[in-house]
Amino acid sequence: MKFKSVSAVASVVAISALVLAGCGSSSSSSSSSSSSKKSASSSSAKTTKVAKLTAGGKMKAGTYKLEEQNYSYGYRTTMSITVNSKGKITKSSYDQVNKKGKSKVDDTSYNKQMKKGSGTNPKAYIPKLNKSLTSTAATGNVGSIDVVTGATESSKTFQNYTQQLVQAAQAGDTATIKINNGKKMKDGTYNLAEKNYSHGYKVTFGITVKNGKITKSDYNQVNKNGKSKTNDASYNKQMKKIAKTDPKTYQPALNKSLVKSSDPTKVDVVTGATESSNTFVLYAEQLQNAAQNGNTKKITVDNLIFAE
């Protein structure tokens, strides 16, 4: 997701570069997720460099909205993005509000307590996350959105909701996205698949829910012939050598972790496969949202591919 597409037949040098890049910092998409992602290095964050889009549908001009239906600890998330005629996000209005419409940013007591316990608070992380969407992530590059230390859950939620808004913007669908947060998932099978290949592979992902729990998770990366990356012996060997893990190892681990917890936020990042782990969590959250609504329609992600 994170890179521009190349032939599935690559040299050892090309595979090495891909593997090393894949081990770097990433959001949630990933490859956020994502839309397809490119991790932002600290230097790129400082210069607010916007990665060039090489594949995937450009966002259409308009305002796109999302809102949670239920309150958690007295607050719920509301969010909107504004996209200009060049396909760039010019405004982001992510917030957490109470039943009176008051922002958590203005909750002095909450901010003071959270700052003391985690080193950050809504007054700090909400503006920071919004700013990311008008800088490094302006073209929908969800993978460039860093998790704010001390606000991991809110950051991952932000990445998930951004991904869904980007998908709406690509389709030009201005209907408000309604998230039935906190609700029990409805039984059924929920599927998601990326549209575009990156380095010869794209993500397919399905979950099965029974009695409100995820009983099966089938996250995979497949080529144009439907062959799983877990069966790409050359790729697995080279990645194992460099990153100490490979698709044959991390894909089953991620699937097992989701089934065990039934909660995407509790899935641990696999060391050496940060990008794929973040993509897994990003899409797992979107599938969870679909299951909360009981919407079994297959989700097709016109994933964005960005130049390295």
Structure description:
This protein has 308 residues and is of the alpha+beta class. 34% of the residues lie in helices and 19% in strands. The protein has 8 helices and 11 strands. Strands 2, 3, 4, 5 and 6 form a 5-stranded mixed sheet that branches. The chain has a 4-stranded mixed sheet with strand order 9-8-7-10. The chain has a two-stranded antiparallel sheet with strand order 1-11. The longest helix is centred in the middle third of the chain and has 20 residues, at 152-171. It is globular, with a radius of gyration of 19 Å. The N and C termini lie close together (11 Å).
Order of helices and strands: HHEEEEEHHHEEEEHHHEE
Q: What structural class is derived from the secondary structure elements? A: alpha+beta
**What can be said about the biggest beta sheet?**
5 strands, mixed
What is the tally of beta strands?
A: 11
Tell me the strand percentage band. 15-25%
The mean pLDDT is 88
Span between termini = 11 Å
Keywords: Lipoprotein, Signal
Pfam families: FMN_bind
Organism: Lactiplantibacillus xiangfangensis
GO molecular function, one term: FMN binding
List keywords for this structure.
8 helices; 5-stranded mixed beta sheet; 11 strands; Sufe protein. Chain: A; 34% helix
